[in-house]
């Protein structure tokens, strides 16, 4: 039987969800979508839009304009 420490489990989850070694800019956003393929996007912004909150935690220099450009200008995402 394999035993995993709580610290090892936390580290594995952090790596899997992309919280370690954050990427930058538009390339970082595309990397998040390659990994996750889906991010919920809501028009309601209470503490921030869900897509922005998700990407801010995974892309070191995230800007809302980057996502807008990928969605509506370059049409790399939908």
Structure commentary:
The chain is mainly alpha-helical. The protein has a domain at 22-73. 51% of the residues lie in helices and 0% in strands. It has four helices and no strands. It has helices spanning 6-16, 25-36, 50-56, 64-73. The longest helix is centred in the middle third of the chain and has 12 residues, at 25-36. It is elongated, with a radius of gyration of 15 Å. The protein starts with 5 loop residues before the first helix and ends in a 5-residue tail after the last helix. The model has no long low-confidence stretch (mean pLDDT 84).
Quick summary of this structure?
With 78 residues, the protein is mostly helical. The protein has helices spanning 6-16, 25-36, 50-56, 64-73. The protein has four helices and no strands.
Element pattern in H and E: HHHH
Strand tally: 0
* Main beta-sheet strand count, sense and barrel state: none
- Report the helical percentage: 40-55%
Poorly predicted runs of 5 or more residues? none
The percent range for strand residues is under 5%
State the distance separating the first and last CA atoms: 44 Å
Count up the helices.
Answer: 4
Mean pLDDT: 84
Tell me, what's the shape?
elongated
Radius of gyration: 15 Å
Overall structural class, as computed from helix and strand content, comes to mainly alpha
Which labels suit this protein?
single chain; 78 residues; mainly alpha; 0% strand
């Amino acid at each position: 039987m394999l035993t995993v420490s709580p610290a090892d489990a936390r580290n594995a989850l952090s790596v899997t969800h992309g919280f370690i070694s954050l990427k930058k800019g538009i390339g970082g956003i595309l990397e998040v979508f390659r990994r996750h393929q889906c991010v919920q996007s809501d028009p309601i912004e209470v503490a921030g839009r869900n897509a922005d909150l998700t990407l801010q935690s995974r892309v070191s220099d995230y800007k809302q304009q980057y996502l807008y450009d990928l969605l509506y200008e370059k049409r790399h995402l939908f």
